[in-house]
Amino acid sequence: MYIIVVLGNCGLIYLISHEEALHQPTYYFLDLLSLTDVTGCTSFVPNMLCIFWFGLKEIDFNACLVQMFFIHMLTGMESGALMLMALDRYVAICHPLRYTVLMNVHFWGLLILLSMFMSTMDALVQSLMVLQLSFCKNVEIPLFFCEVVQVIKLACSDTLINNILIYFASSVFGAIPLSGIIFSYSQIVTSVLRMPSARGKYKAFSTCGCHLSGPLLSGQTHKQTYSQSRR
Questions:
Q1: pLDDT digits (tens, 9 = 90+) for 208-217
Q2: How far is the C-alpha of 148 from the C-alpha of 162, rounded, in Å?
Q3: CA distance 221 to 156
Q4: How wide is the angle at C-alpha 82 spanned by C-alphas 78 and 87, nearest 5°?
Q5: How wide is the angle at C-alpha 211 spanned by C-alphas 190 and 227, nearest 5°?
Q6: pLDDT tens digits, residue range 120-142?
Q7: Pair 77, 122: CB distance under 8 Å
Q8: Which of 33, 76, 139, 161 could form a disulfide linkage to 154, CB 3.0–4.6 angstroms apart?
């Protein structure tokens, strides 16, 4: 499954970067989603394989901290990419005449950088807060990767501030992308249903196909990987 994810997403990144006809915001956002999917899987799947194949169940605290940082950052970037993809389709379908003006190269580049910056800062703060905690020796994580909530549960010191920060960050970085996605697709559905032509409706919905297929495949892959980690 990991090899399929890597090859599929790397092939998509190569195709978008080398095919001039695909140099559009629609495909650049899909490119960003593929990049986060590949790097996200790579941040913990090799460690999982070492556990399954060689029985190497120990990880250094610093390595655990780095892994936790990248997993947290890439998860935030993936949520941001999904929201940007939904907003891109909203502008393209609901405001087609203004699409080239609104979704210019500078604007979508700024959106991508903003999403990456916010995700990086959130992951950095979470990791630094964990670094301040003290842990007992020989702690054991019930997963094959270092996840911030599980790591905090193993701390011997007070974790109240860490838990508050986690709930706050989850509320903000979860509510904003989810609200943007719900708003965008609700407006898209409303706009498409008002179209008199069945062909126009089909064409409008088909433009969302590449955006919807990526998240579904990515989510299914992460679901299968997580279920394996619980066994």
A1: 665 555 554 4
A2: 10
A3: 34
A4: 145
A5: 115
A6: 888 888 888 888 888 776 667 76
A7: no
A8: 139
